[in-house]
Design goal:
The chain is an alpha/beta fold and 282 residues long. It has a domain at 13-47. The protein contains six helices and eleven strands. Strands 1, 2, 3, 4, 5, 6, 7, 8, 9, 10 and 11 form an eleven-stranded mixed sheet that branches. The protein is globular.
């Protein structure tokens, strides 16, 4: 009998090459390769990068149904997964705060997670569980629309190189502590923070991006900074603070960045109906 299908060359490829192929596919399609044959049933289960976007479940106008489907899909993928997970990313506009997030992050903290991105849809902020701070191998952390409260026992993310916090509820002291306890931090982005006086101590920091209402910015130990981008929202209270402060660190913070190559500053005056802005330079 002639084999009209020909030899199955793809299935016999080394696992490392198959994983490289599966990583390029949307997670939904990667999981669906299980139906190809018995050889492929759990090939996807050892991929080290899991990305859940808006296409990870079929489209539906029923938002609650979609959200339940996303939660069920992510939970099942993690349950069936084997081996380390180096990257876990949720950028899903349909998913909101849910109790399963605690279990997901706890699972990731035990599986060598290095890159964690959590960007959920509009709605109630979710609280990051304390198990996040056990992710000792994190190199990149991006959080959006959540509450973050590092425990007193937190010693730092010793491998973290990139930190991005967008609309995160966290105390000013906790922000400063978090930054100072990431000794390898090279890129820092903080956006939509309100009425914040911030002291940054990060000896390896190279890229700094700030957006929000800042009372004061002090660069205490940042000798390697090469790029700074600041967008400030100037309310009446903050404007009055700047007028009354004769020694505001923000006005003289450039003295601690001898290697600076690029500076972009925007000041938005929110008391004006049509926001104006002041461009500092680049």
């Amino acid at each position: 009998m002639v084999d009209v299908m020909g030899p199955d060359l793809i299935s016999d490829l080394p696992q490392s090459i198959i994983e490289s192929i599966l990583v390029q596919l949307p997670i939904r399609d990667a999981v669906r390769t299980s139906i190809l044959s018995s050889k492929w049933r759990y090939k996807w289960a050892s991929i080290t990068q899991l990305v859940f976007d808006d296409k990870c479940v079929p489209f539906s106008n029923d938002r609650e149904f979609v959200e339940r489907s996303v939660v069920k899909f992510i939970t099942r993928v993690l349950f069936l997964h084997q081996g380390p997970i180096h990257k876990f990313q949720i950028t899903n506009s349909k998913l909101q705060s849910c109790p399963e997030i605690d279990q997901w992050i706890l699972f990731l903290s035990r599986n060598d997670i290095k890159v964690l991105v959590m960007e959920l849809g509009e709605g109630e902020f979710f609280r990051i569980p304390s198990s996040l701070f056990n992710c000792r191998k994190l190199t990149r952390l991006e959080l959006s629309r959540c509450e973050l409260d590092p425990p007193h026992s937190f010693k730092g993310f010793v491998c973290l190189r990139s930190l991005n916090l967008h609309q995160v509820l966290i105390s000013p002291d906790a922000v400063e502590t978090l930054i100072s306890r990431c000794p390898l931090l090279e890129s820092l982005s903080l956006s939509y923070f309100d009425n914040l006086a911030l002291t940054i101590c990060a000896p390896n920091l190279k890229y700094l991006y700030l957006e929000g209402e800042f009372k004061d910015i002090c660069l205490e130990d940042t000798p390697l900074l090469v790029e700074i981008s600041i967008a400030m929202y100037m309310t009446d209270d903050i404007a009055e603070h700047f007028e009354q402060s004769s020694n505001c660190n923000f006005l003289k913070f450039l003295g601690g960045v001898p290697n600076l190559e690029k500076l972009v500053g925007l000041i938005y005056f929110t008391k004006v109906t049509s926001c104006s802005h002041l461009f500092i330079g680049s």
